[in-house]
Design a protein that fits this description.
2 domains; activator; Rossmann fold; alpha/beta; Photosynthetic apparatus regulatory protein RegA; 16% strand; transcription regulation; DNA-binding; two-component regulatory system; two-stranded antiparallel ribbon
Amino acid sequence: MANAAALDLGPDPTLLLVDDDEAFLKRLAKAMEKRGFSVETAGSVEGGKAICTARPPAYAVVDLRLEDGNGLDVVEVLRAQRPEARIVVLTGYGAIATAVAAVKIGATDYLSKPADATDVVNALLAQPDELPPPPENPMSADRVRWEHIQRVYELCDRNVSETARRLSMHRRTLQRILAKRSPR
C-alpha cells in the first residue's frame, strides 16, 4: 500500500495534517504526498479550524494535544463542514478514554504515536465494515491495566481519592502508579 498507484483516494485526495511537532508534521506531510494525497498542514487548533472552515478536506490527521488546545475541536469543525470526511486522531498520550471521546466526536480511527505513514494511510482508507489487521505489537497486560486505571482516573475528573475508591485500591498505591510512565 506504500505507492500512490495502489491507493484509491477517491476523487478528492485533500488531506489536512494538524500537529504542533513541526519535524513530525513535515515528515508525515512528505510521506503522504508521496502516497498521492494533496496535503495542507497546520500547527495549531486555530490553524486547523480555519482550514476546515475555508477548504474542508476529505481526509484529516489531527494530534489530540496541541499547544493552543484540544485537537478534538478541529475534528468537530471538520465533521460539521464535511460529514463524510475520514479523520484519524493521533496522540502521544494514548488512553482508552480519549480514544472513546475521539470516536464519539466523529473520528474514524485513533492511533498512538509513534505511528508511521503506512499506519495512518491504513486507518484513513479502512472501510467501516472491515476489521483492521491484528496488531503487530499488542498491548501487554501491564499496559492494559494502566490504560484501565487512566480511564477511570479521567472519568473521575482526575480525582485521585475517588479513583482509588472506585478501583478498590489504596490511594498511595494509585499515586505511585499515576506518577510512572505508561508501560510498553
